[in-house]
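hiii, so i know i said id send this last week but things got crazy w the move. better late than never?? heres the sequnce for the chain we talked about at the cafe, plus the structure i predicted for it. fair warning i was half asleep when i ran it
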Amino acid sequence: MSQQYMRVIQLLVGTESKMIDLSNLHIRFLAKLWTKQTPANCQIRVWNVSDNTRSYIEKESTRFTLAAGYKAEGPQTIFEGTVVQVRHGRESPVDTYLDITGASGDEFNNWAIVSLPVAAGSTFKDRYDAITRELQKYGITPGHTDTLPDEKLPRGKTMFGMARDQLRDIAAATDTEWSVQGSELLLLSTENPLPGVVIELNSATGLVGFPEQTELGIQAKCLLNPKIKPYVQVKINNQDVQQVQLNLNYRVSPDQVILPSIADDGLYRVLSVEHSGDTRGTEWYSDLICMALGQAASRGLVARGYAG
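okay and structure toks below
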């Protein structure tokens, strides 16, 4: 992003047939996105909403879309989901607020049940495709899917239970992971990124401070960048990364010390990102945790017994 100034935002709340635009009001938000198999969430506060608008949102609203960015490219979606909770209050004698809590894929996660017969000889992809067809009634569409093993079932079976549990079974058997991003269901290898553009993070493109090597992964902060999403690739100059120096005198077995590696080529896969902003404040950042390509998140940790 070459022009990261003149911030813009768009917040639409309501139903599929009627969305109310709150973009011109004072808005503060925190959108948390990740590769976990649980719904992402978003917290939004809007100040001084009119009584009629507040009443409609509290009684009727079911969906919302939050977009942010800069004037050169316009607002780009950073979160879309369902309204889980709405509350209002007074912050001062003259200022009221409306808090909106939202989740992505929440209805699917809580209510989607599958009962599907699976014929002998079906593959993992056959089973995955059958589940995705069922999920479309919850507004979830299939997104990017990595190639799955072509192992075939020796006999027929019935897939029955929560859709999320059936997806977890497929992921565990194929060394993949799934998550809902917006309204899309993604299934990727535990070590692969989404194919496509690579986002360079440096001082010229909005990198703030220095990335750090932590037990959770490589943590970095930049000016808000709506293109940064879970699974995408980012490129970081290794010289910018603050690395952990292990105490070699602290004796532990080799399998206890498993630090996230520094990528030789500087390419990392985003595991989670938090977009935060305040339209009348200084906050307008993206905080991300990423892992070197080819390194699974579950293997990029410091064992609990390590205290060096």
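btw The chain has four helices and 18 strands. thought thatd interest u
miss u guys!!
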